[in-house]
Amino acid sequence: MQNVLQKLIQNSQKAIDEGVYEIAEKLQKSQMDLNDLIKNSNHAPIITEVKFSSPSLGKIRTTSDPIVIANSMIRGGAIGLSVLTQPYLFDGSPEFFVNIRQNVNVPLLMKDIVIDKIQIEAAQKLGADYILLIESLFDNRYLKEIDEYVDYAHKKNLRVLIESHTKTEFENSLKTNADLIGINNRNLDTLDLDIKTTKIVLDGFDKSRIILSESGIEAPKDIQFLHDCGASAFLVGSSVMKSDNIETFVRQLVNAL
Q1: 4-17+31-254: what CATH class?
Q2: pLDDT per residue as tens digits for the range 35-45
Q3: Is the pLDDT of residue 140 over 80?
């Protein structure tokens, strides 16, 4: 499969055109600092993801109460949550985000394919702590300069996670004022997955920034491997959402370190 990124961009534009990000709420963000939680964690700093579908796996879990799922993740030890707001291919929605924000105190990442500032404005209204920017969308010139989006998010009192997949993207992301740097072990354009991507990208890196490794984490041993590669924290989505007992599974991941 090729050109998945282009499809994701089209889906975001469709959602924008349909008014998905026209948010009436004005919710407060968390009082907790995700970066501090990562730095001060005595175990593996795990951020779990509430998503019911994905482009690579299709339907992951029957759509159900996101509040129940979020609270199970937090009881298991997740220090933050990533919540999908993209309706297409991910079955996410701003409504899910609102429901979770009103019921949990941990930091929240609005997970979406951000292509327009209206989505950043929506994140602020939803009470998000972080937004996601995907480096490859800017490196491949699908979008304008990434610094413009980072600065706009900061003006809206939002922090920014920039996600990279290749060493070049990673090096470019380090040049920005992003608050958190992510390495996605999945190639979003082809959907190919290789957990060793984090190892390849971080080879020779001086670990001066907090690094979040994303995708492909299925078991505690994966957390241990990625930690040894230099990752500071870990974002886990599909394997948690597929689990029969979310709380227990998250706890096992947290206790991997």
Answers
A1: alpha beta
A2: 999 999 999 99
A3: no
